[in-house]
Each structure stands twice: as C-alpha cells, then as structure tokens.
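We read letters as residues; the fold follows as tokens. A sample entry reads:
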Amino acid sequence: MVKSNRPQFTDVEGLAAMVGHGDAFGVGGHHFARLPVALLRAIARSGIKDLRYICWAGGLPLELLLEADAVAEIDLCFSSLDIFGLPPKFRAAAESGAIPVRDWTALAMIQALRAAQQNLPSMPFQLPEGSDMLARMANATAGPDPLAGTDTGFVPPLRLDTFVVHAQRADASGNVQIIGPRALDFAMAGAARKVLVTVEEIVPVGALRQDGRQSILTRNQVSAIALAPGGAYPASCLPFYVTDYQGLSEAFAAKDTALSDKLRLPSGGLSERLRKAAKVSTETVLAMPALAHGDKEASIDEVITARIATEFDNESFASAGAVSPLANVAYRLAKATHAPDMFIATMSCGHLDIAPSPMVLSLIESLDCETAAAHAGGDDTYSTYYQAGAVTHEIVGAAQVDRRGRVNTIALRKPSGSLLRLPGQGGMADVANMHRDYLLYIPRHSVQSLVHEVEIVSSARGLLTPAEREPMGYRTGKALVFTDLCVFRLDQTSRELTVIETMPGVTRQQIRDATGFTVTFDAGCREVPVPSSDTLATLRNRIDPLGLRRLEFVSAKERGALIAEILAADRAMVERLIGMQRSPVTS
C-alpha cells in the first residue's frame, strides 16, 4: 500500500490501535538503543494477538510481546538481553515448541527486506558456506547465478504489515530524524505497509536541517507519529538520555511483577542522572584521573584480553556487536597501546571509526556515538564492509565449538533430552567467511563446550584456504579459538583445530581432559605471555575500569552478583563525571 505524503499525528494509544491481529510485525532500534518501549507496552495492553514477530533481534521487545501472549510466530537472527543474559520468555517459548521460531542469517533477512522495499520478486545473497543455516531458512534457496553460474542464495520478499520505531524528532510535516546507528530501520520501513513512530520532540518544519550526522525517514514513508518523551525508556535515546541499566536489572529480577509494569516511565519522568549522563563528553571522561586497581597478578580474563589485543595492528578493521564486552575491551586496548590507527566499529558497525574511550557501561553508546567518524545502518554495513571483505577482524563468542571449528549458538540437547535454546547466530554465519580473520572465544573450556561434532552448525569457516576464498573476493587470514586454557588454530590442511598456545600454568593434560575431541598440539606450541605491567595498567585503569570483561567468564550463578557490583561502580563513576562536566577543572 502506498503511504500518504503526510502522516497522521496521534498519541501512543492511537498508534497501538493501528496494529492488526495477525500482522507481520517489525521493531526498530538496536539492543538497548531507541527501542519503542512505550508503544510496545501500549500494544501489549491492547490485547493484540497472533503477531508474526520479524526482526534481526528479539530481546526486550519480544519479551514484552510474549508476556502479553501477542506472538504466534517468530522470525529472527538473535535474541539476547545483552549483559543480562538469555531472555527467559523467548527461551521458554522456543524450548517448549509452543511458538515456531525461524532462524535467519542476517544477510538473508536484509536481502529479503530489500526485495520487499524495492518491489522485487527475490534478491540474491552470499551463501553462508559451512553452516546449516540455508537448510533452516524455509524460503531461501541456492542455485546458479543466471549470469556467472556460481552458486548463490536467493530469498523472496519479506513484507511487513506494521513496523514500529522510536526516533529522536519529527518535524511538523512528519519527517522523522534518527541520530546515530540506524540498525535495519530504513530497510524495515521500506518493507512495511504501516510505519508507526514515537518521538522525543516535534519541531517546526525546517528545524531538522540544523542537525548534523543524522538520517531522515521522509514523511511519505511514515504512516503515523506520536509524541512520547522518554518513549524508549529504560533503553536509550541519545542525545536525550542513556540506558537505565539499574532499572533494567531490577525489571528483569522482579518475578512477582509484570515486565511491562516494571518498564513504565517513572511518574516523575526521566531522572536527571540519565539526562545529564547523555551530555557527558569524551573530553570529560578522558580528563578523569585513572583509577588504581593495584598491581595484583593478571587474571585469566586479563590474559585473554591482552592476548587477543596482540592480533591487531594499525591496518586492522575490527567490528564489534553490542553483546561482547571481551571484544570491545580487546579492540580498545590495542588502539590505546600499540595500534593507534586501527579502525574500530561498534554497535554492529553502526558507530564507525571510534576512539578508544573507557568502557563505562552507561556511557559506552554515547561516547562511541560522539567519537565515531560516521554512523551507519546494519544493511549499509553489509553492503559496504562485510560483503566487500573489508573487515579484518570480528571476535565472536561461541557456546559450543567442534574439532573442525564449527560453531553452535542456536540450541543444545541436554542429557535429559530436553532442549536448551541459545541466543542464535546473529550475523556469524555470514561474517565467518567474509572477514579476513575468524576469531572465536569460549570463556569456559570444557567437554561440553569443545565437542567432537556440534549438533547444529550455526556458523563455520566454510571457505578456509586462499583457493576457496579469493574467487569470492575475500582475504585469507587466521581462524583462531581462544579459551581459558589455550589458543587453537584451524589448520588449513587438516581443517581441524590444533593447539598453538597454552594459557599460563596450564598443562597439556589439563587441555586434553577438558576437550571432547582428540587434541593435537602444534610443534611450535608455546605459553601465552603474561601481560606487561603497562598493558595491565591501561586495561584496568583506563580501558575497562569497571571490569566488564569479567561478565564473559563467570557462571550464571555468579553473574547476578557481578552485575550488581558493576552497576554500583558505574553509577558512582557516572555521577563523578557529571560533577566534572558541571564544574570543569581549570589549569
């Protein structure tokens, strides 16, 4: 349906009333950034049923809709609550089989949305060689390209009935402003029959031209708009407010109160702390005196972080998603020490070429947004960087890896026979082949995590040798797996993992005993060096003062206490920075 040239202005309830039973339903924003929480809560209260949820990510929006029993089908690439772990309602639905879950590769979903956006019968995509994902996508198929004859993936249009998104501003004629990363917002809006938007502000016509580094969803693409200050809370909407991680922690911990109620905007509105934190500048953060964490021996998380950082140099282009503290810390450590010219992209390449600012939880997004040379969307990222083979490194976590370096992040079968649903592969199935270097990490090395053969191959380095990669336009680099016991390399000849380094003090027998396949050690196998005192000081006091990297290395039982410790330290640090911003120290 062709949209009107001028959207309707209404309120949040008015937008919710436009969602239909059984709609193919998409959600904008990314992780805990610009999520349309107020609108989702209203939709959940409306009694809507049988939605087909379609989005790159599930996470908080999907949890809200599942709680309201509003979802009949799920199409996604990934579902996580970021540092808070796996989403319980999604897991329960997937593990019980109560709701069909269809896992997509990120590129296939992008191309399917583009087919709908561009009114085409199908779109091609690079096959996720080595993974099982093509067989898991019912509508996708492989066939010879009609011109080149090479094997290519094809996917039909993925059309949405309704797409909901939160944005910073709209002008009085209905043009919508998005500041910062765009996620898949433009592709989803183009694929949707109805586009419903909540905004922080409505400004006069012409006012949007005054802002730099923005994206505009023009008014003829928008169906209706509602003014909803704080409409993303407790997620962020920069430059108005940052994510309320403490509020999210309390909401996820509450078992006797509906999640929708816990996510309500406080009666007094957004706190001054969240608003002021969004204004803290990188200059203020860098002016903060370094913390002093002492000179204790390096912990295993520090050893692994420092070791991964040595993989990067001034020619590296490293990409990080939003759910990987280890990757983010390792990248920033390298850029702050030996590789000042390396290119770092965060928020799934939404922030391009960031500075190595400290990992202060509440400020990571705002500092990266401020220092980035440019902002992009997920679909732009694939076209410009990933598919072009421009990215050299991306570090990704894995739940299970087998002797051939194949990964499972979709589901495990427990000894009892029941299913354990995992977050999903996100974009791993695509980028495992596209990036020059394929770097995996498993924080807790065990016979359950390092297995002879994974049950589901969600991603793999299917194109390994130069002869396989060069015809596809991909550079050939390393394929490594980092664990708390050793470093594996995927050998190009045997196509199996070989131990090339052991962690400090770890014996070969310890590695054999903790691995579910026969372990081979490289002839030149050596011990990973302990980080220097200077490296440790930079890591502890400048790059990761809250110790976010530790979240990757603790058990589920320990995670709650560690998150509470980090949140308390984060709040104290942010309040200190707000004070510095208000009363700058002069020389």
Summary: The longest helix spans residues 556-582.
